[in-house]
Design goal:
CATH superfamily: Hotdog Thioesterase
Low-confidence stretches: none
Mean pLDDT: 95
Strand order of the largest sheet: 1-3-4-5-2
CATH class: Alpha Beta
Order of helices and strands: EHEEEE
Radius of gyration: 15 Å
Bound molecules: coenzyme A
Shape: elongated
Strand content: 35-45%
Structural class: alpha+beta
């Protein structure tokens, strides 16, 4: 979860991902949070078809700039009957001085669905 561990996802972002202020559009960061959380859910409970049911407590602490290397650290907070709650912390390494800054965090809840899109039970893998 912290910067000493491997991130679940690491990306750098392009000018096409910016808003009118020239910083990265929050929706782009949220889509990567969604992906990182889904990877975490599979790591914790195996290869189910996980769909996102809720994104909670999304906080954008600092802006992300083009060229930053953006790392998504994850952990599993709770495994329910059919759902997995994950925490995603996003850290940017600034392109100019390599400084690491916590930019965003969120909790994302996934539900495992089977055929007919019905929730199916999950269990911890580790
Ligand atoms: C995910 C989905 C199948 C769940 O259906 P549902 O009828 O709410 O299912 P249930 O009531 O049986 O709840 C299933 C689990 O989801 C959890 N859940 C449901 N709504 C939730 C919410 N708003 N926040 C957190 N967890 C929620 C329940 O607590 C339950 O967890 P548990 O089994 O671990 O106790 C349905 O909401 C859905 O299809 N949502 C759209 C998913 C999607 O398309 N995501 C992509 C975003 S566009």
């Amino acid at each position: 979860m912290d910067a000493r561990n491997d991130p679940t996802l690491r990306v750098t972002l392009l000018p096409r991902d910016t808003n009118k202020y020239g910083t990265i559009f929050g929706g782009i960061i949220m889509s990567h949070i969604d992906l990182a959380g889904a990877i975490e859910a599979r790591k914790s409970c195996g290869p189910h078809n996980f769909v996102t049911v809720a994104m909670d407590k999304v906080v954008f602490h600092k802006p992300v700039f083009v060229g930053d290397v953006v790392s998504f650290y994850t952990k599993t907070l709770k495994i329910g009957r059919t759902s997995v709650t994950t925490k995603v912390v996003v850290e940017a390494m600034r392109a100019d001085d390599q400084r690491r800054v916590r930019v965003t965090e969120a909790e994302v809840v996934f539900v495992a669905v089977g055929k007919n899109w019905k929730p199916v039970p999950v269990k911890a893998r580790r």
